[in-house]
Design goal:
Blueprint lengths: L2 H77 L3 H23 L4 H29 L1
Helix pairs in contact: 2-3
C-alpha cells in the first residue's frame, strides 16, 4: 500500500468512527429524552388516577359524614324529650293497661290483649330511658 492509500484508510476509519459516535450519541440523547417524556406522561396519568381516587374517597367520606350527622341530629332531637313527654308515655301505658284488661274479658281478643301488654312494656321501657336523662341534666 502506498502512503496515500494508508492515509485514506486511516481517514475512512476515523470518519466512520466519528459518524458512528455521532449517531450513537444522537440516539442516546433522543432515547433519553423520549424516556423522560414517557415517564412524565406515565407520572401525569398516575397522578390523574390518584387524583380521581382521592376525589372518590372524599365523596365517600362526605356521604359517611352526612349519614353520621343525620344520626346525630336524630339522637339530639330524641335527647331533648323531657318530663312532659315521659308523663305522656306513662299515661299511654296506663291506657294500654286498661285496654288489655278490657280485652281479657273477651275470649276472642287474646291477640289484642298480648299486643296491648307488649306495647305497654315498650312504652314503659321508653319512659324509663327518659328518666335517667332528666337526672343527668339536673346534675
Amino acid at each position: 500500500m502506498t502512503y496515500i492509500q494508508i492515509c485514506a484508510l486511516i481517514g475512512i476509519i476515523i470518519a466512520a468512527a466519528i459518524l458512528y459516535w455521532t449517531g450513537y450519541r444522537g440516539g442516546l440523547i433522543d432515547g433519553r429524552n423520549d424516556g423522560i417524556e414517557e415517564g412524565k406522561a406515565i407520572q401525569h396519568a398516575d397522578s390523574t388516577e390518584a387524583l380521581r381516587e382521592k376525589q372518590l374517597q372524599l365523596e365517600q367520606a362526605q356521604e359517611h359524614y352526612q349519614k353520621l350527622y343525620d344520626h346525630y341530629k336524630r339522637a339530639r332531637d330524641a335527647s331533648q324529650l323531657g318530663e312532659q313527654d315521659r308523663q305522656q308515655l306513662l299515661c299511654i301505658a296506663e291506657t294500654l293497661r286498661v285496654a288489655a284488661g278490657a280485652f281479657s274479658a273477651f275470649r276472642t281478643c287474646k291477640g289484642l290483649e298480648r299486643n296491648a301488654h307488649i306495647q305497654r312494656d315498650q312504652l314503659l321501657a321508653m319512659a324509663a330511658l327518659l328518666q335517667p336523662a332528666e337526672q343527668e341534666k339536673a346534675a
